[in-house]
């Protein structure tokens, strides 16, 4: 049995038994917040519990490292849609200790791509086209600095409402302990 067939078998029971009813909510976040966090599997259930969130409380966006890498990329677009269309009034950037993006080895990732069948010539074409794989795949050295950079990118984005509080936190992936890096309320009160 494949993982997909296991998922679909479970889903048949889930729907038939109406287990979905306990998760009923709207598309608007009840606490009016949007969270950008890492896709790390340790945070899937831990982070919402550590933040006292239940289904429907927040929009949660996940990416490798919880990093805003491009001012007009998919992450920033999602944050802007959450604020302007889905009634989020606050943004939380939540990085975590022991993040895989803090030790990413671009060369090793490229080797793995080649091992799995990606033609080495693709990387020459990408370089010629202006894509720097090292820059595109790079991680970060310090999670605190990474969170600060992402908060700064969101807060100073030309399309972001300046009244929106943008917070920066770091969570411990084993305990759920949250450390505040930037209090968005304090920053907004100083403007």
UniProtKB/TrEMBL annotation:
Cofactor(s) needed by this chain: Zn(2+)
Reaction(s) the record says it catalyses: hydrogencarbonate + H(+) = CO2 + H2O
Pfam families in alphabetical order: Pro_CA
Gene3D superfamilies per record: Carbonic anhydrase
GO MF annotation list: carbonate dehydratase activity
Alphabetical list of SUPFAM superfamilies matching this protein: beta-carbonic anhydrase, cab
Family label: Belongs to the beta-class carbonic anhydrase family.
Stated name of the protein: carbonic anhydrase
């Amino acid at each position: 049995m494949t993982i997909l067939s296991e998922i679909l078998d479970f889903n048949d029971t889930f729907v038939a038994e109406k287990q979905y009813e306990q998760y009923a909510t709207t598309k608007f976040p009840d606490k009016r917040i949007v969270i950008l966090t890492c896709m790390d599997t340790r945070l899937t259930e831990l982070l919402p519990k550590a933040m006292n969130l239940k289904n429907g409380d927040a929009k949660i966006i996940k990416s490798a490292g919880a990093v805003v890498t491009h001012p007009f990329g998919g992450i920033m677009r999602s944050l802007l849609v959450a604020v302007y269309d889905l009634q989020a009034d606050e943004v939380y950037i939540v990085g975590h200790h022991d993040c895989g993006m803090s030790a990413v080895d671009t060369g090793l990732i490229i080797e793995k791509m080649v091992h799995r069948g990606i033609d080495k010539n693709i990387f020459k074409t990408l370089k010629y086209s202006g894509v720097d794989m090292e820059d595109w795949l790079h991680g970060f050295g310090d999670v605190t600095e990474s969170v600060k950079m992402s908060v700064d990118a969101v807060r100073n984005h030309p399309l972001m409402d300046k009244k929106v509080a943008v917070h920066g936190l770091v969570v411990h992936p084993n305990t759920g302990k949250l450390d505040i890096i930037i209090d968005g309320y304090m920053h907004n009160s100083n403007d």
